[in-house]
From TrEMBL:
It holds the Pfam family LRR_8. Keywords: Disulfide bond, Leucine-rich repeat, Repeat, Signal. Coiled coil: none annotated. Residues 426-515 form the Ig-like domain. InterPro entries: Ig-like_dom, Ig-like_dom_sf, Ig-like_fold, Ig_sub, Ig_sub2, Leu-rich_rpt, Leu-rich_rpt_typical-subtyp, LRR_dom_sf. One of its GO terms (cellular component) is plasma membrane. The keyword Disulfide bond applies. This is Ig-like domain-containing protein. Residues 620-634, 641-650 have a biased composition (Basic and acidic residues). Residues 1-20 form the signal peptide. Residues 618-650 are annotated as: Disordered. It comes from Cirrhinus molitorella (mud carp). SUPFAM superfamilies: Immunoglobulin, L domain-like.
Amino acid sequence: MGQIAIFLLHTHLLLGVGSSLVIQSMPWRVPCPHQCVCQIKPWYSPQSVYREAPTVDCNDLLLIQLPTSLPQETQTLRLQSNLISSVDQSELQGLVNLTELDLSHNSFTSTRNLRITDLPALLSLHMEENQLRHLPEAAFFGLPSLQELYLNHNRLRSISPGAFKGLDKLLRLHLNSNRLVVIDRRWFHALPQLEVLMIGGNPVDTIQDLNFKPLSSLRSLVLAGMGLREISERALEGLQNLESISFYDNHLIKVPKEALQKLPGLKFLDLNKNPIQLVQRGDFRNMLHLKELGLNNMEELISIEHSAMENLPELTKLEITNNPRLSYIHPQAFQKLSSMESLMLNSNALSALHSQTVRSLPSLQEISLHTNPIRCDCLIRWVGADNDKPVRFIEPQSTFCSEPPELKARRVKEVSFREMADSCLPLIAPSTFPSYTEVKHGDNVALHCRALAEPEPSIYWVIPQGVRLTPSSSYGRYQVLTEGTLEIFGVTAEEAGFYTCVAQNLVGADTRSLTLQVEGGDLVRARTQKTEDSFEVQDVKERTKEVSMPDSLPDLTPAVLLAVSALLLLFAARACHGGASFGWKDHMLELEKPHTTILTQEAKAFIASPIPVKYLNQQDPDKVLSDGRGKDGRNTSPGQDARRLTKEAC
Ligand SMILES: *[C@@H]1O[C@H](CO)[C@@H](O)[C@H](O)[C@H]1NC(C)=O
């Protein structure tokens, strides 16, 4: 809702409606209708022209008709929240200067009871919150000067093609929160000067091609809360002067990039609260006047991909907040955003923001990162770097580290540069990765896996058949895309099973697994549905209950320990049980069983990948600590990570 408020604020700014002036009402000494209040009050026209308007306030008086003997000089007549169901021209006779009439929140059921034939000075008519069901032809014929018409929060199901005939001066039309199921282009032929159209909150699921074509003067369009699933390429064609558009709270599953390309003057774009999963390469490209973009409150959003935003030379503010699954912003997500000053990324699931991302924004002044699970030992090195120009943190007092444990609850800003590592382990965020997914037979499935790390990790998948799939390889119905998404085309019962994603760089690897259930297929055994988690202490603890402990330990290399989180258990076992030697081969037998436990799949996944030689043959975790860390990684070496887990797991 906050987003809508902000959006409307933009709209106001666009129209230059100033409202910060506080001007007192003045007495107006006239015979005033019974119970009403007559005062001279400040008033702004829809085009922001200021007036001191003789005003009669008769709101909330249980009136069933207009009061008699209204003063002739009345310019503003407020009758909201009464029980009026009809008005006749004769009741307004002589009010030659009436500019605003407020009949909102009354009992009108039809505009036929609005028998106004001639109010030449009326600029603003409020009919919101009545019970209008239909607008007939020329429903507002006697109002040739009308600039502003409020019909929101009625029960409008249908509007005749020529309903707005005679309103050729209209600037703002509010049709939001009605029961319209289609938008008819013919309505707009009568409104050549319209600048603002609010039509959200109607159960419209499709915008037809050229739906708004006649509205070449339109500057602001609000399509919020409508149930829109997609926007076709030509849906917004003709809106040559549109500056602001809101798709807040619809059902869009991807950015309507082709349609947006038809809006050459767009400055403000609100896509908040849509079920978009990925912001993809080219989604926002060459929008030369875009100033502010909002991608907030998206339950499904998990990733901002490479070149998602490219060549937006006037973009100054980007808001990507309150997206509970958003854990990945590609280091090169932003390209040629030369004016970007303000980057809002708070309240997501981001563990870090890559320094490359920050450096790609030459005008960046402020950044908001609070309420994210930030890993302070890693990838956040730009924070304290001296050679870069300073970027201001918004709410630095509440921007905390959540990892590693020794930095937990420290303020990100206060972590010294020395405490951060040059390189770090990949991390597949738990929020992006469900442990269980059910799909319908025949569906196309996309399983997304993204990991932040330095150096950039490579990603591969291990599918139930035990095959390891790397990006750009394909196998049967499977394909892995460069970004890390596994696609399955036309899924059948055969594809049900256990899938593991491995993200790996030279520091180590992270793995996560999920069970894919195909509707109608056999249930995959429950024990494979356990959530796989990475290097989280509590998760390791949980697993110790679920997986039986071996009596002794295989001959593991530290790299194995680092790479495969579940194997930390075995390490834990050694720490707990004293650790006699144990043949790796003995364990392999168990590992050979097809997708029975998480451990099996993970180990397989690991075995399929090469181990950097320098990590081999080191058994002592303390050795890892001294040899395997990055040069700045005093507190952050993966070896220590493993050691910590070991201790905790006992
Ligand atoms: C209407 O407004 C005009 C111009 O401000 C003014 O001269 C005229 O007296 C007003 N008429 C009435 C009835 O108040």
